[in-house]
Amino acid sequence: MQFSSLQTCVFLLALLCDTLTRARCLNFNYTAFPDNVDGTYFNRLNSGIAKGAIQVTYDLSGAIDNQSGRFLYKKQFRLWSGGNKASFNSTFVINISNKTNPGGEGLAFILTADDTLPEESYGQWLGIVNKNSNSNGTAKIVAVEFDTSKSYEQDLDDNHVGVDVSSIYSLRQESLTSYGIKLSSGLDYKVTVQYDSRNLTVFVSQTNETGKQMNLSLPLNLSDHLPEKVYLGFSASTGTNTQLNCVKSWYFNSSDIHENPNLLWVWIIIPAAAGVVLLAGVASYLYWRRHLEKELLEDAYPRIEEEIRSTSMAPKKFKLKELQRATGRFNPKNKLGKGGFGTVYKGLLGNKDIAVKRVSKNSRQGKQEFIAEVTTIGSLRHKNLVKLIGWCYESHELLIVYEFMPNGSLDRFLFGEGKLGEEMEEPTLGWQRRHTIISGVAQALDYLHNGCEKRVLHRDIKASNIMLDSDFNARLGDFGLARTLQQSEETHHSTKEIAGTPGYMAPETFLTARATVETDVYAFGVLVLEVVCGRRPGNQIEQNNYNNSIVYWLWDLYSRGRVLDAVDSRLEGDIDADDMVRVLTLGLACCHPNPHQRPSMRTVLKVLTREADPPFLPTERPAFVWPSMPPSFKEDTNSDLAGGRLTPFTEITGR
Ligand SMILES: *[C@@H]1O[C@H](CO)[C@@H](O)[C@H](O)[C@H]1NC(C)=O
Ligand SMILES: *[C@@H]1O[C@H](CO)[C@@H](O)[C@H](O)[C@H]1NC(C)=O
Ligand SMILES: *[C@@H]1O[C@H](CO)[C@@H](O)[C@H](O)[C@H]1NC(C)=O
Ligand SMILES: *[C@@H]1O[C@H](CO)[C@@H](O)[C@H](O)[C@H]1NC(C)=O
Ligand SMILES: *[C@@H]1O[C@H](CO)[C@@H](O)[C@H](O)[C@H]1NC(C)=O
Ligand SMILES: *[C@@H]1O[C@H](CO)[C@@H](O)[C@H](O)[C@H]1NC(C)=O
Ligand SMILES: *[C@@H]1O[C@H](CO)[C@@H](O)[C@H](O)[C@H]1NC(C)=O
Ligand SMILES: *[C@@H]1O[C@H](CO)[C@@H](O)[C@H](O)[C@H]1NC(C)=O
Ligand SMILES: *[C@@H]1O[C@H](CO)[C@@H](O)[C@H](O)[C@H]1NC(C)=O
Ligand SMILES: *[C@@H]1O[C@H](CO)[C@@H](O)[C@H](O)[C@H]1NC(C)=O
Ligand SMILES: *[C@@H]1O[C@H](CO)[C@@H](O)[C@H](O)[C@H]1NC(C)=O
């Protein structure tokens, strides 16, 4: 893309050079010269426009003795440039009528370097030269004369055409008498002057094209006698005898020439140089951009790869190409879902199905999530965690490869939401399956909190982050928000970045802005209620709309002894009342407003396996009291509250 635009640039530049060096050909066509003709293009030197014609030496006062005049086109005509020569054609109609007998001197079509009238060019000089400049090479002029007077010895007669170069003496002349043409007869004659850059040819004929046509042609190199740019026009003179010299129409056309072929370098070097400069510019810009981006990236994430590789069981690093091939270049058809931090695509690696999460580009957040996810989940192994197969960081693409979960995420089944647009009804999960799912998530969380080398807070437990394998076993996924805590640092059981999904966030989160083991338990409690009730958690951020929350709703039912009313109606009799009450009570206990009253995941597991009874739950939902002292939070609380560190809540969109 960049290359083609560069080509366009060079092309345009070349075109510009071309138009700059190409002289616009001169081209006009006056079929008549009415009195109101636009005269701005004409330079009248003792001449004018009157009686429908150009009047050379026409003096409205009447006295036209011993006069010379020129009538020139103001714009110059480029005759040649370097070795290039223009060609031209000019056709005009003349009408010369004598006012005396015999008449005046004559009329000429001229190409001249000089747009002034030579002094004392009246009489025999025809306004072309004067006695000083005649034949001495100083007058840069070429003329086609229509001579109506034999003024000197060299003149053929008083009715001839001649071609003059810097002189009044003609290089070649031809009498018109034998063609039935009398120049000063007051009749119209059509004249055509052609120059093909080698020969100059003149045709004279009757305007009605009858009779013979006179032609006169001679090889002539106008470049030898005239400057590059010349004026075009007519000149005429009178002496003691006078006449009217009229030009009634005038057409002129010329070919384009390139101004200066010696400036060929303009053609080649300037576009080439410009191209090189442009290329260099583009290249250095691209380099600079990449470099800057790389630097920025490296600043924010020093040694992204090292960081990932340093984790104990470093996952496999994939090549971007492999994953592009596997997902059909991230074909939208392969899209499995879209989350806050990226899009998940289905892929085929070898003969194994995979899920590839493509972290949104240019998202700083995204890159943090990426590292968090790869480093935490990558070093964990548990049957209820989504297995991370590998990762890729290439060309600004952040990709995470998981094993493929054929049944997708839990929320589809709970809330009956198929893929967007499809009104596909998912099969209802039976009670046994739901119980298994809850147990699975509990085991995964217990493993994260208590079972692995480093304590991990998931921080974003919710239905859409629970994946289901082919046997509908729960697999906890999306560790984008997960944070690792050193197990040994018992005092640091919390991490200080507010994150999560509205509806799953414990009430103290809004005050402490801290994620703790207990906030994970709270989110798990909400999930349990969801799974049993098949109902969305509601939004408890909107403080005045607290009752929307599944926790409040259920606790209300619980206090009225009608907790079973909450059970998903789709379960239709597939009910183990005792078990359900047990699980719902456990869920509510996890959602206890006071963090230190919530059970640990260990306890949760025991209740689920019936090794222990559900924790005691007050009938009325206890008020949320702060500060409450969760066991794992004691050390930090005071200083935090004294510092008044209440991070304003920012909503973080989950899936
Ligand atoms: C000049 O213009 C007239 C009128 O438009 C046209 O008839 C005539 O052919 C033109 N002359 C030339 C030589 O093109
Ligand atoms: C015109 O010029 C000629 C000589 O060049 C001179 O004899 C004559 O008197 C002049 N006529 C007028 C009217 O000035
Ligand atoms: C013009 O010249 C012709 C001869 O060519 C002559 O008969 C006529 O009288 C002259 N006209 C004038 C006004 O002198
Ligand atoms: C040529 O013409 C110029 C300008 O009229 C004049 O100054 C010069 O003397 C002339 N040279 C000759 C050799 O006649
Ligand atoms: C030629 O010009 C004269 C003077 O302007 C005019 O009287 C005459 O009619 C013209 N001839 C033609 C054929 O137009
Ligand atoms: C035109 O010029 C060429 C070369 O200068 C010459 O051979 C040819 O005869 C000329 N044609 C005419 C009609 O004069
Ligand atoms: C052409 O014009 C000439 C002079 O203008 C005239 O004598 C002749 O009769 C004309 N021929 C035709 C066919 O009109
Ligand atoms: C020029 O005139 C001569 C003699 O009249 C004729 O043989 C020739 O064909 C003419 N050439 C053109 C180009 O009209
Ligand atoms: C015509 O003039 C040009 C420019 O001065 C020159 O390069 C060329 O050789 C000349 N051609 C002839 C035939 O004299
Ligand atoms: C001039 O006229 C001739 C013959 O009609 C033609 O071949 C040539 O292209 C014309 N040149 C221009 C510049 O109009
Ligand atoms: C003028 O000359 C150019 C170049 O020879 C030619 O292409 C064009 O057709 C001519 N125009 C007319 C009106 O003859």
From TrEMBL:
User: Which top EC class is named for this enzyme in its record?
Assistant: transferase
**SMART domains from the UniProt entry:** S_TKc
A GO molecular-function descriptor = ATP binding
Kindly indicate where the leader peptide sits in this chain: 1-23
Segments spanning the bilayer are: 264-288
Q: Give the classification, highest ranks.
A: Eukaryota, Viridiplantae, Streptophyta, Embryophyta, Tracheophyta
Spell out the subcellular localization from the entry.
Cell membrane
**Broad class of where this protein is predominantly found:** membrane
Record family assignment: In the N-terminal section; belongs to the leguminous lectin family. Belongs to the leguminous lectin family.
Q: This protein is called what?
A: non-specific serine/threonine protein kinase
Protein kinase domain residues: 330-617
Q: Which CDD domains match?
A: lectin_legume_LecRK_Arcelin_ConA, STKc_IRAK
Annotated spans, Disordered? 636-655
One Gene Ontology cellular component annotation held by this UniProt entry: plasma membrane
Its membrane topology is listed as:
Single-pass type I membrane protein
PANTHER family the UniProt entry points to: PTHR27007
The protein's Enzyme Commission number: 2.7.11.1
Q: Which UniProt keywords apply?
A: ATP-binding, Cell membrane, Glycoprotein, Kinase, Lectin, Membrane, Nucleotide-binding, Receptor, Serine/threonine-protein kinase, Signal, Transferase, Transmembrane, Transmembrane helix
Q: Where does ATP bind?
A: 357
